[in-house]
Design brief:
CATH class of the largest domain: Mainly Alpha
Strand order of the largest sheet: 1-3-2
Structural class: alpha+beta
Radius of gyration: 19 Å
Strand content: 15-25%
Shape: elongated
Number of helices: 8
Helix content: 40-55%
Distance between the termini: 57 Å
């Protein structure tokens, strides 16, 4: 039986397959998968955010003759890029930032100091901190455990 959810899942799978085959301009993805975006009720900004958050997907700006002067190209990177992404440890990054700062920091401030392009929320930081014995939460502040 073809339910709306299974159709969306199938379309999302096709989208990932396309990204794994070749770099693709956002405009092409927006047009080719228009029924998906319409079914989900997403605008262009929401679709771009979804693509940016997909594991292994890299967005690159391309200068050229495009409206606005540049275009985003999305592609699923394999091999070294996946290993690098998989090796990233949020707790290690928080420990390094706190060590460098030399003082406890609010979670909201830590988010701003994380590497650019990393999509992290305050609950994600809180969860990672609670699971790591090197970190200690004190109200809104995160500090190194002694």
């Amino acid at each position: 039986m073809n339910t709306p959810n299974s159709q969306v899942a199938l379309e999302l799978k096709r989208l990932r397959q396309k990204l794994s085959l070749a770099p693709t301009h956002f405009a092409d993805l927006w047009q080719e998968h228009g029924s998906l975006w319409q079914t989900l009720g997403w605008n262009e900004a929401q679709a771009r955010l979804y693509l940016k958050c997909l594991p292994g997907v890299v967005a690159q700006e391309e200068a050229g003759n495009h409206p606005g002067g540049q275009a985003l190209i999305y592609q699923i990177k394999s091999g070294a890029a996946e290993n690098k992404a998989g090796a990233f440890d949020l707790a290690d990054e928080m420990v390094a930032l706190l060590s460098h700062a030399g003082r406890p920091m609010p979670l909201a401030q830590l988010i701003n100091k994380l590497p650019a392009g990393l999509v992290v929320t305050e609950p994600m930081l809180r969860s990672a901190a609670q699971q790591d014995p090197r970190l200690e939460l004190r109200g809104p502040l995160l500090k190194l455990a002694h």
